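SAMPLE LOG
Freezer: B-3
Tube label: C17
Construct: single chain, 191 aa
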Amino acid sequence: MTELSGRRERKKAATRQKIADTALRLFLERGYEAVGIRDVAAEADVAVTTVFAHFASKEALVFERDQDFEQRLTRAVTDRPPHEPLIPALHREVQALVRHCTAEGAAPVRRMIEGSPALREYEESMSLRHAQALAAALAADPRLSRSATARRATARFTIDAYALACRADDPGATVDEVFRMIEAAWEATAP
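STRUCTURE (predicted):
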């Protein structure tokens, strides 16, 4: 049963990736606004219902790594070694995530997002959700004795560090600068 289940999961993941890759290619070739879900489904050779089984909306096709992003940030909190301080763990994970958003070939996707009001709005709502998930992970960690306000602000600033760096001329330096401020604020709120 495990082998069958594993095969099914691999096929689902492959179909999801095929849809996302097809959508991104079409969006970049024709423009985000000019491509519909039916176009993506036809090009990926799947039913429209299959697209929606994997992605809740057209915007979600652009941000297909959304769940992975959120999980990586929350795991930076929950999976860090017992004596590792929080802020360096978050800093390291955001630096790794920024390398992805600034990798070769990412600029056309960033321009597409910036050029679409629907994608910018979706990205902002996604950022708020990520900040809430990160704040919840911070609240659940018994090693972190900070107020709810300090946890929420730290979570939001962490997400903002990523967003600012993805648009910066020097992404690494931007992350470092923002995290110096986050660390100072975190230390200032220590009980």
